[in-house]
Design goal:
InterPro entries: GPCR_Rhodpsn, GPCR_Rhodpsn_7TM, Olfact_rcpt, Olfactory_Receptors
Number of domains: 1
Protein name: Olfactory receptor
CATH topology: Rhopdopsin 7-helix transmembrane proteins
Number of strands: 3
CATH class: Mainly Alpha
Number of helices: 11
Strand content: under 5%
Organism: Cavia porcellus (Guinea pig)
GO molecular function: copper ion binding; G protein-coupled receptor activity; odorant binding; olfactory receptor activity
Shape: globular
Subcellular location: Cell membrane; Membrane
CATH superfamily: Rhodopsin 7-helix transmembrane proteins
Oligomer: single chain
């Protein structure tokens, strides 16, 4: 163990998205715009929800929490990726790598749990509308949000512990642009087969189980729509389709990455970019452009600012 301690890795080197200088500059411009739009769009949703009294409902309470998580989720990886696109040698300290890994899993897991809660909220609203006010009280919504953050924290602590318990004595090159459990544990100078299985049983099971629960809830909602009026069916389909798009774009990459230990594919970086940089932008795009109530609230806020 003394040898391992003396040669312990103190920093990791990212290979990044590409070694082509032209592509790096193009990626930098594209992802800079994507990140700014992510921050702007999600922040706008949060302020619109907070400042508009009629949006103080469970659905928009969860939506504003989703926007907050998307801001945090993208901020964990995208700034470091943008920095790496400008540098020839892309490095991160060991402690910073572990911190990035922890917060990545915290926000990703919190988003997965929140999307599951939002599906339950829509299920109650559409399938049991008379019981909705008593079932989805604001106090219950706050408790559910607290529970999802607690669950995300426990999950992230488990993932972090599985990573830092391993010895790292070289090599220190990560074939990615951010720190995540699968590429990091590959660098451990010990057998990681058991750790890989534990990762799948944790991240993979959470992603797959929540996704199946979501599919089941939306299936029940779709079956029950025949009881709704034409206008009710239109609103329900519009809301659920927006939710389901976000679900597919987040869960698809997570299931692809975290349900196969000790293997890697050439598509891993593309999939990772999608769920760390692109998916957080989809929330404001999908909800803002498709939701008339949110657009109307934003318009009124603009008028209120122009004519106080």
């Amino acid at each position: 163990m003394s040898t391992l301690n003396q040669t312990r890795v103190t920093e990791f080197v990212f290979l990044g998205l590409t070694d082509n200088l032209v592509l790096e500059k193009l990626f930098f411009m594209a992802f800079s715009i994507t990140y700014m739009l992510t921050l702007l769009g999600n922040t706008l949703i949060i302020f619109t929800t907070v400042l508009t009294a009629r949006l103080h409902t469970p659905m928009y309470f969860f939506l504003s929490n989703l926007s907050f998580i998307d801001i945090c989720h993208s901020s964990v990886t995208v700034p470091k990726m943008l920095e790496g696109l400008l540098l020839q040698r892309k490095t991160i300290s060991f402690n910073s790598c572990i911190a990035q890994l922890f917060f990545l899993h915290l926000f990703a897991c919190a988003e997965i749990f929140l999307l599951t809660i939002m599906a339950y909220d829509r299920y109650v609203a559409i399938c049991a509308p008379l019981h909705y006010p008593s079932v989805m009280k604001m106090r219950v919504c706050v408790q559910l949000v607290f529970a999802l953050w607690l669950g995300g924290t426990v999950h992230s602590l488990v993932q972090t512990f599985l990573t830092i318990r391993l010895p790292y004595c070289g090599p220190n090159i990560i074939d990615s642009y951010f720190c995540d459990v699968p590429p990091v544990i590959k660098l451990a100078c010990t057998d990681t087969h058991l750790t890989g299985i534990l990762i799948v049983s944790n991240s993979g099971t959470i992603s797959l189980t929540c996704f199946l629960a979501l599919v089941a809830s939306y299936t029940v909602i779709l079956v029950s729509l025949h009881k709704q009026s034409a206008e009710g069916r239109r609103k329900a389909l519009s809301t659920c389709s927006a939710h389901f798009l976000v679900v597919v774009f987040l869960f698809g990459p997570c299931i692809f990455i975290y349900t196969r230990p000790d293997t890697s594919f050439s598509m891993d970086k593309v999939v990772s970019v999608f769920y760390t940089a692109v998916t957080p932008l989809l929330n404001p795009l999908i909800y803002t452009l498709r939701n008339e109530e949110v657009k109307c609230a934003m318009k009124q806020l603009r008028q209120r600012q122009a004519f106080p």
